[in-house]
Amino acid sequence: MRHLWAAALSLLPGLAHADCRNVTFEDTEFAVCTVTVDQDLRLFHSGPDGLYGSFSAINQALDASGLTLAFAMNAGMYAPDRSPLGLYIENGVETHAIVTAAGPGNFGMRPNGVFCADKDGFSVTESRVFSAAPKACRIATQSGPMLVIDGALHPRFLVDSDSVNIRNGVGVSADGQTAYFAISDSRVTFHHFARLFRDVLQVPDALYLDGSISRLYAPELGRHDRGLPLGPIIGTVVPRG
User: Fold this and answer.
1) Using one digit for the tens of pLDDT, what is the confidence trace for 85-100?
2) How far lies 236's CA from each of 19, 58, 122, in Å?
3) Does residue 111 have a cis peptide bond before it, meaning omega lies within 30 degrees of 0?
């Protein structure tokens, strides 16, 4: 059943799983998963046998510890070898440095940004600001462009753009205690997607994660999207029922 955002607002925080709901915004369907700081949010890239690449591979690795994914999605852009393009920190260990130079493609469309989870909560920070004052992130992933910056849309987004795609991203509440992970069910412009975060989810800062490869794992919604191997993946972990 499809739910309007008004229904999603009634959900209680602090649940043992990622709270995923379908949201309709301007006749377009989005899936939104709400994660609070008390949940076990992790980044995944590689295990003992190499690249995970899929939600199934992560669940297989977690199974030995009696755990499973509650929700997951791709967590940022990557190179042809599936390695992160920008800053990547997993379990407090940095495996790829931050990139602050402008460049080609969506990743290089400055301002881009960093999603971080640290002892104080969640944040989305413009990359050059983050580089000047790095945070002690438990997990962090860099991607781009920023969707919402201090309450304003990225200046290069056009209302009538002909660039449309499946898109996913993450926004953080003003108090840093809640992160909203969203993916469109159909092709949308950057402008439309960014307004979902600003106008519906009402977050001051949001970050684009990726486009045509965007995929979601959300059992609550009957979603287990498949496709070519992914690079970084982000998701919440819960005890297997």
Assistant:
1) 999 999 999 999 999 9
2) 10, 11, 14
3) yes
pLDDT for position 215: 98
User: What mean pLDDT is reported for the chain?
Assistant: 91
Task: Output DSSP code: residue 193.
Answer: H
Residue partners of 18: CB distance under 8 A and separation at least 6: 33, 34, 35, 39, 70, 71, 181, 218, 220, 235, 236
Decide: residue 236, CB within 10 A, 0-12 exposed, 13-18 middle, 19+ buried: buried
The residue assigned the tokens 């800053």 is 87
Distance (Å, rounded) from C-alpha 178 to C-alpha 37? 6
3-state secondary structure 54-102: CHHHHHHHHHCCCEEEEEEEECCCECCCCCECCCEEECCEEEECCCCCC
Determine contact, residues 177/121, Cβ cutoff 8 Å.
yes
- 3-class secondary-structure state, position 6: helix
Contacts with 125 (C-beta within 8 Å, 6 or more apart), sequence order: 113, 114, 116, 135, 205
Overall pTM > 0.85: yes
Q: How many CB atoms lie within 10 A of CB 231?
A: 26
| Beta-carbon contacts of residue 221 (< 8 Å; ≥ 6 apart) | 20, 21, 22, 31
Amino acid at 190: F
Higher pLDDT, residue 187 or 155? 187
Residue 166 tokens read as: 């499946």
Closest CA to 35 of 58, 8, 14: 14
